[in-house]
Structures
1.
Amino acid sequence: MSAETGIGEGVPGPGAPGPDAPGSGVSGPGVPGPAASDPGGTGAGLPDSPAARLQALFEGHRLTPTQRRIAHSMVRRAADVPFLSSVELAELAGVSQPSVTRFAVALGFDGYPALRKHLREVAPAEQAAGPASYNEYQQAVEAEIENLKHLAELLADPRPVQRAGRLLAASRPLPVLGLRAAASQAYGFAYFAAKVHPDVRLLNEGGTMIHDRIDAAVRAGASALLCFALPRHPREVVDTLGYAREAGLSVVTVADSAFAPVAKVSDLLLPAAVGTGLAFDTACAPMLLGRVLLEAMCDDLPDAQARLEQFDARAAARGLFVE
């Protein structure tokens, strides 16, 4: 079973099971979803944006890892893709030019020129001209701004995040997983979540005991696990999520792409791209998506506001913060 990605697909239609019904609303790369019957269109519930139209085009196709890499690169540069040659797209994705051609054929086109023609017809847009005067640091910031804009487009359909908020709020305790590069994301979420959720358990160190901690959470009544997964994706994260699902937990994952390796072991995947313009990746969009998830979780915790007010009162009495 693949992940339902939080990009508008997998939304139950009339007469379909509710959003929390077992097995409902699950689709993902290589698994036909509602958008698969609308190639090139926006798909039910998808925001009308170049990135969303591209995502809808890829749904329902079984893509190889190389092809998923091309698809991910196209989504990230959705406004520019209709103007890129096959060589330019290959360089963008870090693959060979023949791989781009095979990708277009896998989508049902005669070749890449036919795919690019289709993209220009269904998603006409003016090619964005980036200022040539930007230095490498400014370019990294501009790239993060584009990632945030892309995230805003995905959040035009709030239902996946709202569903995630319900799952996280209902889980007592709530395990939050993030290893290596994603450890800080998990820590930040857990820090704030603990102010409104009665039992948050941070899993930010790997090793042989991580399965024991998941078992303990399940015995205590946990029903869901939140994972932050960022490149490079540790094999241990994939293995741990698989173990969590086998233990009966619903896995909600914030990842850098709907095509990330963790998609196959997630029940609900919410994508937020990372910046790659510097020596180390930047993760502004995943961090912001984590805060959005906190907001959605608070909406389903009736005593969240009271808990925050109690904390503020205690902090003031202790003189905890310098005003």
2.
Amino acid sequence: MKRIQITITALIATSLLLTGFSFGQLIPRKTDKPEYRDFTSAGGKTIKALLIDKTEDTLTLELPNGKTATLSYEKLSKEDQEYVKEWDKEKELFLTKCKTLTIRELLEIRGYESFKFTLQGNHIFVVGQLNGNKSDFMVDTGAGSTVLHIESAKEKGCKVGPLDQIIYGIGGEAPAAKTEVPEIRLGQAAIKDQVLLSADMFKDIPNPQKNYDAILGAEFMSKMRAVISYKEGRIFFRPDLINDDGEEEAPEVPEYRFFKTKDRKTHKGKIAKKNAASVEISIEGQKKNLIIPVGRLSDDDQKYVTDWSPEREIFLRQCRGLKVKDILELRKYQSFEYKRLGNHIFVDGTLNNKKTRFMIDTGAGSSVLHVEWAKETGCAVGPMDQTVFGIGGKAPAAITNVPVLTMGRAKFENRQLLSIDLFKHLGGNRAYGAIFGADFMRETNAVITYREQKVFLQPDK
């Protein structure tokens, strides 16, 4: 048998409380009023103004009376010169004009395809296709590679070889088979002609609910430049960039669009405004706008009008340079650059004020500590009288009282977690001290971005 170290850390853990969960907009819209700032001249005179533009040599201020003034940098105090140098027009526009847009809208504008996921015991599930057959997938960033449930692989037309491979899970090792997979697909996102592993995902689990056909691992997430947003309950992909290592950009947008009506008329223009029943289109080369009932438009154009908003238009045309990282940080998310070992992702934090490396694992329903590290950091570890289940069977665990666990500003105090020997079946090589699971990620509205290799948490909700 060939031994392959693919760690599957999806857990079924008992005696752990779940936190509240809600979908919705990420931050409320507080005000549309511009935020004027006190600018001080080099001579000490102060005026209230709004910075609206800058070049390498000059800046443009807007006064409360609506008038504008353009002046050179040296006319300002040293402090204000530094402020202007750091000021970013795209970010300012985003904060003042686009802040009502949700993460879903912002990513879809940038060309991402989105899927609503469901949570069952904190695990993420999405619906897709395995060889053209409807299938349920569990998204597991803790799984380095995608793994199929062997019965599902056979039922859905994959060529399954002999059980002469070995994979490792939380409970030990399990036999696996090389499997030829013609296609796994979610919407437009697909991987084709892969040789993956199949195993009995539910063996030795008491009363298993066979509610998924495969675990989508980190290699799939990485190829598709996935973004996972717990707040909105969605996962996003950019399958068009699967073979492109270049910088990600928002799609180009022409100044005008061809609007088509159901009576086969075409109008070249752009939306000036809309209401629930009609849309007003500014026609290219004409001074008078055209008002068309939304119901008269083609299905594609009806959807375009429904999705359109002034905020989306401003973002797409004037904030194109903002990356996903910029957008989230402007939303008051704290970012962490993660480390990749193989396909696994790791972030540094603390456990009882001792530096700790956490593996980010959406497949772990609850955060879990390595038992030896829990003891070393002063956690109160109980007897190993609990049980967790996963690939490879069951493993003993201990209820553990954790005084404090931190990741940046995110602080989790007086929590009760489980501790297990995370490395018993992996040769004892302790690469991290704990698994940062879906419970904490839900609590902090986590966003995971594979393209930018970052984890974002929103601890100050």
